[in-house]
Specification:
Blueprint lengths: L1 E5 L6 H10 L3 E6 L15 H4 L3 E4 L5 H10 L4 E4 L6 H6 L1 H22 L4 E7 L24 H18 L4 E7 L2 E2 L10 H11 L6 E4 L5 E2 L2 E2 H13 L7 E4 L5 E2 H12 L5 E4 L1 H29 L1
Parallel strand pairs: 1-2, 1-4, 2-3, 4-5, 5-6, 6-11, 7-10, 8-13
Antiparallel strand pairs: 9-12
Helix pairs in contact: 1-8, 3-5, 5-6, 7-9
Length: 308
């Protein structure tokens, strides 16, 4: 079968490409620019796999460029993984997050609907659409109310709901996955667990003092390996009954985030290590940014009143 992966140069995309190639499928990867960034994925994609990937170029925020991809190619399925997926960044740049995640997805959906309607779309949503639901320890169901607690989650809710409407009206084929926490090779160092791993590796090399900057270690999450996560995506793509459905992709054993930090420290062999919380500085940064935006809006409003 012939599959397109958006976000192939991201975290999960290369692992999905490996899985598809190992199972005999033809893999295309959407890349924004032809500037050589394709080779970034060689850290987790073997050379013999890399040579089998066909790269196509287009910017999800530009409908014309995405439309051309589907005019020139026909796919059996599309794995839509591309997104601005960092919640803290979404507070700093909510408009950019919406452009990337909402309009970018809308452009892709429209291009598939018009030029490749037989393709099956997997939309990678997120557990962030549920917001703070589940803090009481109960299991989160796909039928739970969507109450995002950050702009990233809100951007995913928008596309999630739009696709549900498209599925209901038979405008497009596909399904939605709401993945919970997953980690593994290639995970960005701005995310939990990988941030700890990156800092600890630097300590082991003597590149930084033994002070580990951490987030909220009391947060409870179910974390799975990224390779298990993309395997779920693949199995759902092949499943006959997945059209129009929504799936939570997650593990079974919840742990406090401190559990994973403790495991990393144990495996590192480091003894004299101090932990320092970053939460207060992050909250302060968000408050400063919000204040600056509010001041700019007030100045703009005052300027408009003076004009009128």
């Amino acid at each position: 079968m012939k599959f397109l992966i958006t976000g192939i140069t991201g975290f999960a995309g290369p692992h999905l490409a490996n899985l598809l190639i190992e199972n005999g499928h033809e893999v295309f990867g959407l890349v924004r620019h032809s500037n050589g960034r394709e080779t970034d994925i060689l850290d987790v994609v073997p050379d013999d796999h890399f040579r089998q990937i066909k790269f196509v170029y287009g910017d999800l925020r530009n409908y014309l460029s995405i439309s051309k991809v589907f005019e020139a190619n026909k796919f059996d399925g599309v794995f839509h993984l591309a997104a601005q997926s960092h919640p803290p960044t979404s507070f700093v740049n909510p408009i950019g997050t919406m452009e990337e995640n909402v309009m970018g997805s809308a452009n892709l959906i429209q291009a598939i609907e018009l030029h490749n309607p037989e393709a099956k779309l997997m939309f990678c949503s997120t557990s962030e659409v549920y917001g703070n639901v589940g803090r009481d320890g109960r299991k989160i169901q796909t039928t739970d109310q969507l109450l995002p607690a950050n702009p990233y989650g809100a951007s995913k809710v928008a596309t999630d709901l739009y696709l549900q409407e498209r599925f209901e009206n038979k405008a497009i084929r596909g399904f939605i996955t709401r993945a919970f926490s997953h980690t593994g090779p290639r995970r960005g160092k701005t995310f939990s667990i990988s941030s700890d791993a990156y800092q600890i590796a630097r300590m082991m090399k003597g590149y930084q003092d033994n002070i580990l900057l951490v987030g909220n270690l009391d947060t409870i999450r179910v974390v799975i390996d990224v390779r298990d996560c993309v395997n779920a995506y693949y199995l759902l793509m092949l499943a006959d009954g997945s059209d129009g459905q929504i799936y939570n992709v997650c593990g079974e054993e919840p742990h406090k985030m401190g559990h994973y930090t403790d495991l990393l420290i144990k495996h590192s062999g480091l003894i004299m290590l101090k932990r320092k919380s970053m939460i207060s500085s992050i909250v302060l940064s968000i408050l400063i940014i919000s204040t600056v935006i509010a001041i700019q809006l007030r100045n703009l409003q005052a300027g408009l009143r003076n004009i009128t």
